[in-house]
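agent> call fold_tool(seq_1)
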Amino acid sequence: MTQKKRSIFEEVDAAPAAPAARAAAPKGSLIARDDRGARRAIRAWLWLLFAMVVAMIVVGGLTRLTDSGLSITEWAPVTGAVPPMSLEAWETEFAKYQQIDEFKVENSDMTLTEFKAIYWWEWGHRQLGRTVGLVWAVGFLSFLAMKKIPAGWTGRLLLLGGLGGLQGAIGWWMVASGLVEGRTDVASYRLAVHLGLAFAILGLIAWYAFLLGRSAPSLMTARRGRDARLFSMSTGMMHLAFVQILLGAMVAGIDAGRSFTDWPLMAGQVFPMSAFDIDPFWRNFFENPALVQFIHRTVAYLLLAFGIVTWLKGRKSGNRATARAYDWMAVMLFGQVVLGIGTVLYAAQWHIAITHQLGAVALWVLILRARFLSQYPADQSVRGRA
């Protein structure tokens, strides 16, 4: 039998993309196992988790803005799911709160009714966290039991659950820092770790969902057309944006957003004179509102500048979907800068501050999407249609 001649432009390893090749694959091969995987169902489950984590971030922000985070003074992962059901139970919880310095110094005139308001915010935040864990566990165990998880994905999905459990522990570690004598709030650096891990989990969920949106052979083929330089630049954007998110948490942790409400100056100065008033010197980087807000503003300018450079490179991409992804990233970047300025000018009013936080989520995901399309360009016709 005469062997069919190959075109000099045909790649030898293009066979996996062919339906016939996939059908003929051995039963235990990676290709066959990948075809059996419920990629669409797992992707839908991941997007549900994504939406729930976003809700967690929003509720967590509101809990912080309403000074509700220390209203529950114990960590009870199981029994804590049941709120006080009687007047006696409410009075017991209120008595525990009255023992900490936040009550003694800032809320000594608080009534039981007012305590209930802040208690429900913190309880709701913790309950939502429990629900996220439950949704992850039910989904993961179901897909595992039905053997629907694609090859190589069990560890990735298990990692999400592990990080979720770690996030719960870090949440209590954060709260515990505000319960010690002499403190009326949580440590800002612990708040930054807590929020940073939330964004890391969010980023992993989004990245996994992007990957599951395409077949394994399609991803292998797309990777050959990756733009290495653009991928590297977007990776830099991702890292810088993550640093800015951590700094935003530091600002929120010490209410620095309400300390200087003018822009572009700070209290009429380019560099606030009180930036190094705290001793020892290193504490200023964590506890001085002037210095923390100045650093947050400075990194915002750096992120904007680098974002413009990355966008100018990305918009020249020969892949239409990739270029459009960088356009959207740039639009959200400018929008987030405007929201940040508005948050400062209006002294971090809760509705503006929460919108700014949601803007961070949107920008974070759009950076990741642009980065993904740099690594795995979407298929497009000769005319440039994706």
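agent> call fold_tool(seq_2)
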Amino acid sequence: MFTTVESFINEYQRESNTTQQLLDTLTDASLNQPQAEGYRPLGYIAWHLVHTDRGMLLGTGLKFEAPSAASMPPSEAAAIADAYRTTTAGILEAVRTQFTDAKLQEVVNMFGMQWTISETLFAYLKHEIHHRGQLTILMRQAGLPVIGAYGPAKEQWASMGMPIPAL
């Protein structure tokens, strides 16, 4: 969990930078890449990373601007990437100005459970990482390059001057 506001800010900046790089790689055509019958396509997953930021974080009392969760995903990949960039900047500014280290230990009702704000911020990051994983699989299926979040992706080994690991 996070014991300081600065520790969350540092971690969120790292994670959101990785997410932003992936979103910046999307193409308009890739937004229609399906998961499976009856599931939302890549564009919905990407948009979920933008608008759902409000849900969990609003439960902590944090106030910032983000698109409505009821809004349909844009049909342009650049619009999704730009909305994520703007939302992320708003979250970072809100955390810097509205939270203190002591406030992180306050308890809030989250999904019918009692979580500290620190626990909520931690879960929020894990939620983004979970959906980012879904995004990378769909991006590969759509023929887009991906980046490694915690180590090199297959495409990155060569640029590092190293052989791609054998299967």
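agent> summarizing second result for user.
The chain is about 55% helix and 5% strand. Residues 5-159 form a domain with the Four Helix Bundle (Hemerythrin (Met), subunit A) fold (CATH 1.20.120.450).
agent> awaiting next instruction.
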